[in-house]
Recover the amino acids of this structure.
């Protein structure tokens, strides 16, 4: 049954027939049946009839439990969250990477390569072989193709080598695609200092993730200004990617699809995003802020509905915007709170 | 002005606030909720709590040293009105001239209190000037600090450090930082009677944003049983004094904490969660984990077995108050090793008049 469901989801991911609403409910039933942890969470709740009612698994659960519908000893891969000194890392186990890879490729191409078949890739991440537990490194390994170099080794950005490659690209008039975390790009820009490139037309960049204290934190506007100023990549060719270890699907700014810089993200056919008003637990009004909840059919073997810790806004055209992680709630009184000293 | 006249004037002004329908009380209930974020019922509750503590016999206990400062600058912070009112009273009892920078979150209480004092004793009220300016206006702050013999400053570590840096080295500087509080219920305690209601009052007052608001109750006896009773009492208190409306970030933070524990509770017998209906105005979390994490506030309170109490020692120096029940030597000694102020549960939000720790 699971194999059949996986095949049907795979076909749907690949643009074949299928109905999200029905598949989501099937995946939910499958997960409830095959993950006792999830079943224990769901059973006291009223039965559901619509995908919007599927009980969401908070991302924190990946730290405390095995969120998997198969024996994790059979996992072909496990991706880990970064974890901090005060928290354990969360783990996402994969029985197969088929769905993950199928969800990654076409979505990446639609948002980073809508105009050309391929480009050489310079990735400011470790290689998948060097970081087997990094979902980002794996994803880039899948989408980037063969002409891809990785520039992080042992947690260090290979700035000199990367700078040299950028020189070569500029001299050979070869457009290039840069992929990496926002903080890795900040390290690159700090390294470049006064050195400026004017990368060939058609060059582009994908940046992802927050800073998590690993580089100086700057605003998105400032980061994009640096892309343009130091690399010559115009803002309509810079795309933010939103994803997390607990998901199998990535979300990209609509920027390259519409031809101008935008902070709104597209939702592919096999996923849904709801913005939840924390005061009601129900979907927020369009344009109102709330917690981002993701429904992802490619998460067949883990959890189809994930409650993130990020705030976002939904728009009437079906896109959504990510506003950042819930953390810095202002202390209004004179008590310390959970966030006061831990950051 | 002699000390007795000052004490009398403060106690009279405070007494007026306690009269239902009194103009200052009415105005505070109308004006304070917006900026403080408290419900009108909570503002009402706060008025009763604060002004009933300013009785003459309590004020008479306040010692006035011979070398008291003549001019005091008070830099207030946050939405909880009690420390600011206490600070002003302390300055007056010291016979000083007082310059008060009120908090952006509560410009209402200090002004109205001084107005109410003017009604009783205009000369005394003239010794307090309440102003507000933004913390970005450094030159204003510097001027206010330079003119003082002593500075009473409230706020987070960063604010206090920057105020200290702006204060001339010869000026006495008293910084009161943000703190946490908690409570211990001894095995001798009976859960019947008033204890759960007293605990719920301490945890719910000021929507748990005060430094004397308990984040956790450590229970020597049946901790889970206590949590259940506390939950019921939190609901009762919510009916009487609703929590204020939260900013989206605060609500999201509380949701994140609640949902994480709800998922755990389905699969871990060491965790249980009690909560209300949307907008989830209170949450009680029973957790046997050895670690202690401060609450996200806004009436999210932990109940833990006392065997986990050791984790609180990490917060030594940042603990304001430890509430205990029952009031016996053993618990007083245990609590006294952890914090400067020890009181009975139910009294955590009723510090001695001018206690500021």
């Amino acid at each position: 049954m699971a194999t059949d469901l996986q095949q049907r989801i795979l076909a749907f991911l690949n643009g074949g027939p299928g109905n999200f609403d029905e598949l989501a409910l099937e995946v939910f039933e499958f997960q409830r049946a095959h993950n006792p942890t999830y079943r224990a969470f769901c059973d006291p709740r009223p039965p559901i009839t619509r995908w919007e009612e599927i009980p969401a698994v908070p991302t924190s659960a990946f730290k405390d439990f095995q969120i998997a519908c198969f024996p994790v000893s059979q996992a072909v891969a496990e991706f880990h969250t970064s974890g901090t000194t005060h928290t354990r890392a969360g783990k996402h186990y994969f029985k197969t990477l088929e769905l993950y890879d199928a969800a990654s490729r076409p979505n990446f191409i639609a948002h980073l390569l809508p105009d050309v078949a391929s480009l050489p890739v310079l990735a400011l991440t470790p290689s998948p072989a060097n970081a087997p537990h990094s979902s980002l490194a794996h994803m880039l390994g899948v989408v980037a193709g063969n002409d891809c170099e990785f520039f992080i080794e042992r947690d260090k950005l290979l700035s000199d080598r990367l700078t040299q490659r950028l020189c070569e690209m500029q001299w050979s008039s070869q457009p290039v695609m840069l992929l990496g975390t926002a903080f890795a790009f900040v390290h690159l820009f700090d390294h470049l200092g006064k050195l400026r490139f004017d990368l060939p037309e058609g060059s582009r960049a994908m940046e992802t993730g927050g800073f998590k204290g690993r580089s100086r934190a700057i605003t998105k506007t400032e980061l994009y200004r640096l892309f343009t100023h130091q690399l010559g990549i115009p803002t309509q060719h810079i795309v933010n990617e939103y994803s997390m270890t607990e998901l199998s699907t990535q979300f990209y700014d609509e920027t390259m699809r519409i031809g101008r810089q935008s902070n709104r993200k597209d939702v592919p056919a096999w996923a849904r995003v709801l913005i939840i008003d924390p005061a009601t637990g129900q979907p927020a009004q369009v344009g109102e802020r709330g917690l981002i909840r993701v429904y992802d059919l490619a998460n067949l073997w883990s959890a189809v509905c994930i409650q993130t810790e990020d705030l976002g806004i939904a728009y009437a055209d079906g896109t959504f915007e990510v506003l950042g992680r819930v953390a810095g709630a202002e202390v209004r009184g004179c008590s310390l709170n959970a966030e006061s000293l831990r950051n | 002005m002699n000390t007795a006249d000052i004490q009398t004037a403060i106690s009279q002004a405070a007494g007026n606030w306690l009269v239902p329908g009194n103009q200052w009380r009415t105005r505070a209930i109308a004006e304070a909720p917006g900026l403080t974020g408290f419900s009108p019922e909570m503002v009402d509750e706060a008025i009763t709590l604060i002004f009933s503590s300013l009785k003459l016999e309590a004020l008479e206990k306040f010692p006035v040293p011979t070398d008291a400062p003549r001019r005091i600058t008070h830099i207030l912070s946050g939405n909880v009105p009690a420390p600011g009112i206490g600070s002003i009273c302390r300055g007056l009892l010291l016979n000083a001239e007082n310059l008060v920078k009120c908090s952006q979150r509560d410009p209402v209480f200090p002004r109205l209190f001084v107005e109410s004092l003017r009604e009783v004793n205009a000369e005394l009220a003239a010794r307090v000037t309440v102003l507000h300016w933004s913390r970005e206006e450094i030159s204003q702050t510097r001027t206010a600090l330079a003119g003082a013999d002593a500075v009473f400053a409230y706020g987070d570590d960063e604010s206090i450090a920057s105020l200290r840096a702006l204060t001339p080295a010869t000026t006495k500087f008293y910084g009161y930082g943000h703190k946490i509080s908690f409570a211990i219920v001894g095995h001798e305690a009976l859960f019947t009677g008033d204890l759960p209601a007293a605990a719920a009052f301490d945890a719910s007052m000021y929507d748990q944003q005060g430094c004397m608001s308990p984040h956790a109750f450590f229970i020597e006896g049946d901790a889970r049983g206590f949590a259940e009773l506390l939950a019921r009492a939190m609901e009762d208190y919510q009916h009487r004094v609703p929590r204020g409306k939260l900013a989206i970030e605060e609500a999201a933070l509380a949701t994140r904490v609640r949902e994480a524990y709800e998922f755990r509770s389905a699969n871990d017998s060491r965790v249980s969660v009690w909560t209300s209906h949307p907008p989830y105005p209170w949450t009680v979390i029973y957790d046997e984990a050895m670690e202690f994490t401060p609450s996200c506030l806004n009436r999210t309170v932990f109940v833990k077995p006392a065997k986990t109490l050791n984790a609180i020692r990490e917060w030594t120096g940042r603990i304001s108050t430890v509430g205990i029940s029952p009031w016996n030597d053993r618990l007083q000694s245990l609590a006294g090793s952890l914090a400067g102020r020890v009181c009975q549960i139910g009294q955590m939000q009723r510090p001695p008049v001018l206690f500021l720790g």
Q: What stands out?
A: The first strand of chain B starts at residue 71 and ends at 75.
